[in-house]
Amino acid sequence: MYLPREEGQGLVEYALILVLVAVVVIAILTVLGPQIGNVFSKVTNNIAT
Length: 49
Known about the structure:
Blueprint: H1 7-48
């Protein structure tokens, strides 16, 4: 009986999930990046004074 090889299928699925997560993270950082930078700047300025 012929059994199809599905070993590479799992790897492709994990790669697609990884790409999707990376795209979501990049989108979030693009939108919230300046705001996060401002928060860290304020914290740094408050520590310095």
